[in-house]
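name: query_chain
kind: protein
chains: 1
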Amino acid sequence: MTPNRRPRPAPNERELRLWKVGRALTLAFAAAVLVAGGIFYFLVVLLDVQEIGATAKLDAKTLFDLVKLSFGVVAGAGALVALVVAYRRQRVDEAGAHREATRLHTERFSQAVDKLGSDSPAVRLGGVHALAGLADDAPDDPLRQTCIDVLCAYLQLPFTPDPGTDPAHQEEHHRYLAFRKVRHTILRLIGDHYRRPRGTHRSWQGCDLDLTGVTIDGDMNFTGATFSDGEVHFDSATFSGGTVSFDGATFSGSDVHFSYATFSGGTVSFNGATFSGGTVSFGGATFSGSDVHFGYAAFSLGEVHFGYATFSGGTVSFSDATFSDGTVSFSDATFSGGTVHFSEATFSGSTMNFGYATFSGSDVDFTEATFSGGDVYFGYATFSGSDVHFGGATFSGSDVSFDSATFSGSDVSFDSATFSGSDVSFDSTTGPAPQGLLAAVGTPPPSGVTLPSAWILSAP
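structure:
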């Protein structure tokens, strides 16, 4: 699926725009008169000259002063004309310099793109570095974005899989490794440039990054990067090897999409990342073999979506993460394998939505998590084969709902959980009571805890 990209201004939008000479002179002269009038009024007030005597005569000295004043006005008008002409000349020179820089950039761009199409991996590497350098030196943002788009498009091109190390395919294997080096270099350069603070030389922060459908089988380092503008797309990308790090990154205003991405190998890390605005979407993603870590991440604003995601293998960890505001949604997600950790996470003000989620085979761990504020919703969720642990969890202020959930075969445990102030509802829930829930809640249940009557009657 190709994302809707925001329209970027074309390079020719920076064409020279100048006022006509007459208009420029008129406005400049009017401004000069206003300034002169203001100065004259200030001097009059300063000298406390309130009126001019009616008997004053026009003597030779006064006439000479008027002549000097007239010549001064003429000289000032001439200086004003010279100033306007100099302004126009400067603007014309600037426009000419920009056109020349654009022309040189276009020539270099064409040469770099030609290198990317070479049959030689070494020449392609040269083209990659040339394009990255052009993006750094681009005279305006649209030209920089064009260079980044070409690098991303190269990664989106189909490539021949590794034929293996069989001696009969040794040459093809070496060729595959050589061209993979080109792709890995682009991945490395993208990470290097996005880590640079915005506004500094060689920083690409704020630019769009389209890696839709790309296979990421090498290292990418976004550690400490800030995603505060632009759009970043990893839609339908495949993370199949290497380490991709978003550790300490800040997601504060941009849209970052991992929709329908596949995490099948390697490690993807969001440890210590801050989600404080914008939208980060993992909707429809598949976690089947990668280790994905959100440890100590802070979700304080914005929206993070895992709706319809499938967790079928590997490890996804939110251990020690803090959810203090915003919305994190796992609605309709499927937990059919692997391990998902929320152990010791803190839910103090956000909305966590597991509505209609299916827990059929994963190990989902909320051990010693703290639910002290916000809403946590497991409504209509199905627990049919997973191990889901709330052991030692504290429910002290959240609104937690398991309404209409189904417990039909999972090992769901609330051993040693504490219910001291939250509204926790299991209304219309079907199936046996989760292990340790009745002992943790107490019989009869305290105010704010709603249990099915069949569970209460079955309590020892």
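note: DSSP finds seven helices and 30 strands in the chain.
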